[in-house]
Amino acid sequence: MRRYGKHTDEDDIRSRPNRKGNRPRTHIRPKHEDAAEGMVLTVDRGRLTCLVEDRIVMAMKARELGRKAAVVGDRVALVGDLSGQKDTLARIVRIGERASVLRRTADDDDPFERVVVANADQLAVVTALADPEPRPRLIDRCLVAAYDAGLEPLLVLTKSDLASPDKLLELYGDLDIPYVVTSRQELENGDAADRVRSFLDGRITAFVGHSGVGKTTLVNALVPEERRRTTGHVNAVTGRGRHTTTSALALPLTGARGWVVDTPGVRSFGLAHIDPSRVILAFPDLEPGTEGCPRACSHDEPDCALDAWVEEGHADPARLYSLRRLLSTRERKEGD
Known about the structure:
By secondary structure, the chain is an alpha/beta fold. About 20% of the residues lie in helices and about 25% in strands. Helix 4 packs across helix 5 (about 215-220).
């Protein structure tokens, strides 16, 4: 039932008093100019662990950020209680612009992207030479994701005491990717950590790898004061490992400048979000040859200009083969 007529005088309309006594809601958001800068170290069920100066601060995302989520590696602005004391909670009010974003999807037909880490500049792909057996297609997929995100790849081959790395290294020789080969004994005595650390100095490096390859064991050797659980094992029937890391965690590198981001073991690395035009940027010797390619060229079709570019001697045919092998990973399963 309508209380007032169509043409009412505003003075005649009664307003309800504000019983709570708080200020009326407004669309004008505070600028938080005094917010402190921090870095997200890990995310767990809506709570974000951040480094603010030299303090570890627990925080939550401010409502005003809406659906925008902060991830490990993000540079953020925080307000509230920044003391880092127990049972205190700050608020993240801004998320800084990201220099890089490493993403993946669950499968190649999955439209939902998952951000693995932000602001990293290197991706260390860790794979065992045996127990479990190496999976080149999964390595290829990680490399494609690295090139798409603008990250420099690094191959870390573990368990060389069980198998030779020569065959796997030959497969990636034409890509000119730096690599480190380690054994279980070298991991235990610290020699492997010292050699890997030389590639990490001054960088933010995300570590990815199949479960059971020794990724977290390596991270523990690089950051011994922050040891993570490494009790996983490899299933003798499936050849797959058990996850020992359940959430990504950024750790300051011991004995050098830089950060190590340990991520959960992956069993698939979907590439639904990948744009082939970004992957070609990792092949500067081939990129000029794409000028004659048709629009939206996949670089693996009859009209692709790269074939003529290579035939004219501008680039090594092995490099074109490597590019097309990587780009074709979306059509192949990791276990192929």
